[in-house]
Amino acid sequence: KLVVLKNFAMINDLYRHFCGNSRRGDTSSMQLQEFEHLVVLSGAVDVLRERKLVPAVFKQVNAGRSAGEGALDDKSMSRFEFIEALLLVARHRQKDRRSGQSPPCHECLEDLLNDCMRPVHERLGSGEVRTALRSRLLRRWLLGKHEALRRVFDFYCRQGSRNGLFAEASVLMDEEEFT
Question: Which end of the chain is more exposed for a tag (fewer CB within 10 A), N or C?
């Protein structure tokens, strides 16, 4: 609990950032492809060797959910299911292949957060590029190049994923988010 509490702001930022990639502006739940995007981008999962891990984790965190009114469907996960999914990935990463045992949960999660998630979080909100993207001058320039940028955006939206990871989503951002 302490590891989650200590890192909750970062976990929440990552959840909010990676939600809504497949459904514009929806940050209330995370889809499988959004979770897969995060764990592959962060290096938490080697998708070439462990292709079935992410869908299995996603299914497991949804297994105990009741189908009552107001419940999300099994194609999405809530913020707390996201934390559970991170914990499952963390334990899998630390599991001893021979014995099947892993270190205590808090150690696994702390290592995952420090080694994989923190670098992604830092890249999302810091650096010269992010600072420049927030400037009024750049915003004015981007708005002036709107038509050309729109053509580039449309071109890449029509392109399929070469490795099939994100084949379900042809659009990972919308025009407003791009500019």
Answer: N
- The one-letter amino acid code at 24 reads R
pLDDT of res. 111: 93
Q: Which residue in this structure is represented by tokens 């010269």?
A: 128
Determine the length of the chain. 179
Amino acid at 132: A
Q: Note whether 70 and 51 are within 8 A (CB).
A: no
Q: What is the pTM of this model?
A: 0.65
pLDDT by residue (tens digit) across 54-91? 899 998 998 766 555 444 567 788 888 999 999 999 99
One-letter identity of residue 166: F
Question: How far is residue 19 from each of residues 16, 50, 81, 173, measured CA to CA in Å?
Answer: 5, 23, 13, 11
